[in-house]
Amino acid sequence: MKRGLTDFSIHHPWLVIGIAVIITAFFATQFPNIKIDTDPEHMLSPDEPVLAFEHQTKIDFDLSDFIAVGIINEEGAFNPQTLNRVYNITAEIEEIEGVVVDDIMAPSTVDDIKQGDGGGLIIAPLMEDEIETQEQADYIFQRIKQNPVLRGKLASDDGKAMALFIPIESKDQSARIAGQIEHLTKEYGGDVKYHIAGLPVAEDSFGSQMFAQMAYAAPATFVVIFLLLFSFFRNFKIIVAPMVVAVMSVIWTMGLLIMTGNTVHIMSSMIPIFLIPIAVINSIYIISEFHGHFTKHQQKNAAIRHSISELFVPMLFVSLVAAVGFLALAITPIPPVQVFGVFIGFGTMVSWLLSITINPAFATLISTKTLHRFAESDESQGFLSRILHLIRDFSGKHRGGIIVGALVMVVISAVGLSLIVVNDNPVKWFKKSHPIRQADIAMNAHLAGTYMNYLVFEGIDDDDMKRPEVERYIEDIQKDLEEDITVGAAIGLPDIIKKVRYELFGADSSKMVLPTSQDEIAQMLFIFEMSGGDPDDLFKFVTPNYDKANVWVQLKNGDNRAVSHVVDRANDYMARHPLPMGIKAQWAGLPYINIVWQNLMVGGMREALLLAFLVVLIMMTSLFRSIKWGIISMLPLTITIMAIYAFIGFIGKPYDMPVAVLSTLTLGLSVDFAIQFIQRLRTAYRRTQDFQQALHDNFEGVGRAIMRNVLIISIGFVPMLFSSLVPYITVGAFFLAIELVSGLVTMFLLPAIARVFQKGLFPKPITKGEN
Amino acid sequence: MRITAIFSTVFLIGLMVFSDALMAQDTKDTKDAQKIMKKSHLAYYYAADDGVAEVTMTITDKRGKERVKEFVMLRLDEEEGGPQKYYTYFRKPSDISRLTFMVYKTPDGNDQRWIYVPSIDLIKPISADDKNSSFVGSHFSYEDVSGRHWSEDTHTLLYDSTLNGSKVWVIESIPKEKYKGFARKLSYIDQENYLPLIEKYFDKKDKLVRQFKAEQIEEIDGVVTMTVRSMENIKKGGKTIIQFSDISYNVGLDESLFTERYLKNPPRKYIK
Questions:
Q1: Which residues of A touch B124 (CB under 8 A)?
Q2: Residue A631: which residues within 8 A CB-CB, separation 6 or more?
Q3: I need a labelling partner for A392 at 20 to 30 A (CA). Which of A42, A403, A630, B143 fits?
Q4: Average pLDDT of the residues of chain A
């Protein structure tokens, strides 16, 4: 088969290229059907119970996701100018398509519960019209401070910050709506700082920025890789093939993904970035080998055949191993990660197929004259050669030291691994300087928080939530939660009942307590409804049948660790204080969903990585027909994964979604060098029967190719380090680290091991070796 | 063939619209929308001089869950089209039973409202600032229950029509002053008894927000009475049905019933 494909490519180069172009064109036609989906809810399978509960909660309490708009003035935000500006901005926001107008929370839209004439109760808009005097502004501020439902939410206690909460019909509109709101704030201006925050904005904006980043990162990476290839091979024609292979692999893979109706999620958007190095690496081996052979023998077709036949098995294995690493992601319970794994696995095999056909086809088409010039570039004295010789000499002299060093590194890495902190927050996918991060920091410093979780209590019968012991339980757990530093406010039905009672009894603070009878609770709520209170406001906290209640737990920090801590605190509270008879409690909200899928992902990734590791070990053992070599070939990837993740542990970078997914890429990429090095070393040994000669040849041949790969991939992805999206920076840094660590481990450790265990690993052949 | 069919259809529709417009022009000249709305208001809100009825209010939220409130309602007109007094005694749900509520309605001023809260044994005045707020948590507002004075809107008779076999006037009402309740209202007024059969409320974007419907009309003690009415929230979902039973008119309610004393101690003559 290997001979067949190569020969076919040599004999019919145009046909091969033509077929590849046609298939590529076919897949390219799928691109207009692309569907973007950055909803983190879709990180979970649709039948995941937490999603069903989230949807039910949204229906039960008529909840929407929201955008938080912050208005901050360090000199004080409560003055007539600012309030009137906010009044007008709110009025204009009401006109924006996709905004749930009835549920906007702003000074001009919320109701205040206060005393009316004659000791009655009035529930009326907090700010009915534009105001004129500072007294009116102060009054509004005081009313917010005295209302448990609004305090900290609409205004900070120091009066320097104000917030509006804009509910939206669907999350995928949040970037657009946020843009329109930003436009309004610019139009109204003033001596205040405006901020726009909230998880939906971060998540939706990430989707759009992702593509902007791709449009910059992908070409930049391409150009850098192209330049590096040129600096090594000094021939434009020969290095076009690797670029074509990379582009085609990406188009086939993404085309198939779109064609099969899959959405492009945050994960799958990274497929092109992952595929480029995989595709380029194979081609570099071929060109390196071709270059070496052609320089010596000046025979084009023979050189092509030699390169492919020499590389066919290691390349096939490298690709299969990488593909297995990715396919293992299919066992994770996260649909977008499954899609990512399956398609990038497919892409890996596509790039292998294209490498062994397109490269020969292109090489065939290049004139011998051009090739002679290509062959003239002398390699024996270059910078690369000097490094190679240095490594060769060092690994020869200090073999024992290298092995000990590797062991020390493993031990240190184990310590680093134990320090890994699992954490994620979509807002932090943006750099600290990004407006979304700035908004998050500023607003959460002043106000009760831009992240909203819901703790839902569910009874068996209607009116269960009017039971005094149930209300008291909710009140107590709210108090407990509010002691957590992450919780800015926990607001529920008890707050409304107490506020009504307090105002009804003439602002008597001794009456700011829950009633002890169900009738009184029911009657306080009835008074709320009778006094102009909007029943819909009430039904954000309790269902109309009073069978379920909802505590709004507002969080200042959306880090999964912080959110988990709050959830654990509530669980702990409920363990210590059993819930009233027949009452159940359950969390909902976007921050909660994020921790659920993170937990699933961390567990899933661990299993996927272990599975991939085992399968790769079995593959290696069967490739080398030796358990010893199988284990040795796993060393570079094991040490690379351990070292990189230990580094993450040491520097305290959170183990987030991109970091988790990169573990399988690390596995796939870092096994490459080991396979090439060992396979070619053994082939050389079989040929020469001389270990020293084989090792020497190996450094000159595959060693040089490995060094080229290390340099091309690690430098090629440097442009990604300048991205404004953190996951992209992470990916760029990973490529750099994977290539450097696995390259160096392969080049130092494998020769050292080969030398130390030479007798066991390279037995003298019985037939020829005798005598 | 087909073209002809399309043309004749278009022509027929055009003719219908045109004749409708002609008729509207005609009726607009002869009838006074203002007068119709006044008569309708009186027929609907001021039937007889007083009245007592058992009321069942079924509130269905948008999830389809039902809540039922039952109360007795006493009404006394002080002057046809003028001030009225309402007294409401709640029976259900049981946790608000014995709660009473009283309104002095003044058409050209602010109403006065009081509530008696049995669990704390207190009478409290209740704000009447916002007539658009929900009436006891239903989809009806206070104003839907006690009536918006006809003089607050400009009425235009659009055209005559028929609705379920009854001839109706279709009248458009636009508030004279900027108003939160609606930007435009369409009323379908029965030409025989002046009762509103349908009312459609539109917001400032001219979207249909709420729809009122007369579900059942009966003659009781010689008075044409709407015994079942509904209000549907088209925009957000949900519907309230109010059903009147045991209706009696001109029972001779005394003014003294509408005082604080009776808030605490309901008149047993009418409330058993």
A1: 119-121, 504, 527
A2: A617, A621
A3: A630
A4: 88
